[in-house]
Amino acid sequence: MAEVRAITRSTVQAAMEVLAGIRPIHQLARRLDPRCLAALQHRAALIRREITRTGNPALARLHRNSAVRSVRVCEISDGIYEASAVVVDDVRARAVAVRLERSKQVWRVTELVIG
């Protein structure tokens, strides 16, 4: 369970950095399944587009200086875990839900929901 908690913490932190525009999305390609990766990439693009369109300084601070404050993990079945994390950034606190599945000795995120 400690391994799953550590993977969740690092994956959530990296996802928030992608949304903040300070980490390239491809660094998460091995950890996220293709659907989660595409959804995260789409959300990051929408944020960048809206910042460019409006120039809103509050949007520019969104997801900046994100820190994972806590992670809770629950085993669903053998090789499947669900986790939740609380993330605080310059603007607000948010919840993140993650589902991890083990296949071929590799943990893969199959669901990533960022509140």
User: What's the CATH topology name?
Assistant: Nuclear Transport Factor 2, Chain: A
Overall average residue pLDDT: 92
Binned, the helix content reads: 25-40%
CATH class: Alpha Beta
Arrangement of strands in the largest sheet: 1-2-3-4
Give start-end ranges of low-pLDDT stretches.
none
Query: How many DSSP-defined strands?
Result: 4
Shape annotation: globular
User: Order of helices and strands, N to C?
Assistant: HHHEEEE
- The tally of domains stands at 1
Alpha-beta content class:
alpha+beta
Biggest sheet descriptor: 4 strands, antiparallel
What this model shows, in words?
InterPro entries: DUF6459 (IPR045596). The structure is a single chain. Helix content is 39%, strand content 35%. By secondary structure, it is α+β, with helices and mostly antiparallel strands. The protein has a single domain, classed as Nuclear Transport Factor 2, Chain: A. It has a four-stranded antiparallel beta sheet. Strand 3 and strand 4 form a beta hairpin. The chain is globular and about 45 Å long.
